[in-house]
Amino acid sequence: MIKNRDGFSSKLGVIAAAAGSAVGLGNIWKFPYVAGQNGGAAFILIYLLFTFLVALPVLLSAFVMGRSTGKNAVGAFKSVSPRGAWKYVGLFGILAALLLISFYGVVAGWTTEYVYLALTNQLNLGTAEAYQHLFESRVANPESSIFWLAIFLAFTVLIVISGVKNGIEKYAKLLMPLLFALLLVLAFRSITLDGADKGIDFLLNPDFSKLSAEAVLSALGQAFFSLSVGIGTMVIYGSYIRKDVNLQVTASEIALADVAIAILSGLAIFPAVFAYNVSPSAGPGLVFITLPQVFQYMPAGYFFSLSFFVLLFVAALTSSISMLEVLVSFFVEEYDMRRKRVAISISLVIIVLGSICALSNNLLADVKLFGLSIFDLFDYIVTNLAMPIGSFTILVFVGWRMDQNIVKEELGLGKRINQMGYNAIMFLVKFVAPSAVLIIFLNGIGLLG
Ligand code: PHE
């Protein structure tokens, strides 16, 4: 390992930072509406299955790869297989991280604007149409979308510039407990409303007849996206983990925290939505259109609405930090560049790409590539291509290509390895998870008919 390499100082720091990466817009903004559109509890069950049997083995493999090599995703592939083609998958991951932060930043920018609107009490609008109009007008406005994207990015860059221990870890330790506390308060408020039971039922009572093949595919996509795997994030975070931290336990705790927060978000949203008789299937507008409307009916709505958007902002921030870190660490380690300079230069590129995404919702709405708007195209490349391809590759690499003694040592904390647990994990890593990814991926891109 490189001498004096920055890293996480404690196990708690690892959990906060990696769970901070995992818990994001994917849990609070995307999960509830995707679950809502795909039949609620039945979708959630499949999603849980994928998280623990497929995405968690990927997370663990990424940690093994990162910690054993002490490198970013590209460097890690290169140090095990200098002449192999693996590193190109690493590079694809780096590119995907750039596209991801560009469109994620746009949604995070809307979130930042809604924090401002909630704070200045501008979310008391009365009718459903007024909320719809507000959101659509924000999305349709190029200047404000780009302005709020830039503000959000500024927070991200400032934290990443401060480094791993004094930036990423420090803020994650501060922000994650805040996020959890806010979410608990909101979920408690929501499930204690009169008429909340319909929402709880919708979320926890499975109806398998609503489960389509497409829903199964989006459950897998959601599992990868939510655990931040497949594009190098967890490899670089793994490289910052100290040798005395148990990876199996840590990865499992992160996965548990991630799904717990997704489900808690559902519990914060749906009971309230049903209690006030608002439609649960609003899609991406669920948290921006439906929720503020619900909050205005609640006593102390100002407080709950502000808490919710702060929560969403914090979740997005700790995730985008990890995306930027993928890019920054790559240039710092592979090209010997300075962290601060790299972070600032990359953020300029992100502003340009992010602006194009933001404009694809308004001025550039007619520009379509492969039938998708630029925003949707970026999302498609990251979620449907880069993440499954990257995840598959990491599994095969750790399961079949890496020296198994090293893998065993990383998984077992030296000698004290539990042979049965190790065999079970390697069975998932070598066989179950890659076949599941392959079948679902090929089916998803239409190759299995
Ligand atoms: N897991 C994050 C979320 O749920 C998104 C993310 C994906 C972050 C990949 C980093 C890398 O919002």
> Which stretches are low in confidence, meaning pLDDT under 50 for 5 or more residues running?
none
What ligands can be seen in this structure? phenylalanine
Tell me the CATH architecture.
Answer: Up-down Bundle
Number of strands: 0
Q: For the terminal residues, how far apart are their CA atoms?
A: 47 Å
CATH third-tier fold name: Amino acid/polyamine transporter I
Report the average pLDDT across residues.
91
Q: What's the order of the H and E elements?
A: HHHHHHHHHHHHHHHHHH
Radius of gyration from the alpha-carbon trace, in angstroms: 21 Å
Give the percentage of residues in beta strands: under 5%
Rough shape? Answer: globular
Relative helix content: over 70%
Oligomer: single chain
Number of helices, counting only DSSP H or I runs of 4 residues or more: 18
Q: In CATH's first tier, which class applies?
A: Mainly Alpha
Main pleated sheet: none
Quick tags:
449 residues, mainly alpha, Amino acid/polyamine transporter I, 18 helices, 77% helix, globular, binds phenylalanine, YocR/YhdH-like, transport, transmembrane helix
Structure at a glance:
InterPro entries: Na/ntran_symport, SNS_sf, YocR/YhdH-like. 77% of the residues lie in helices and 0% in strands. With 449 residues, it is mostly helical.
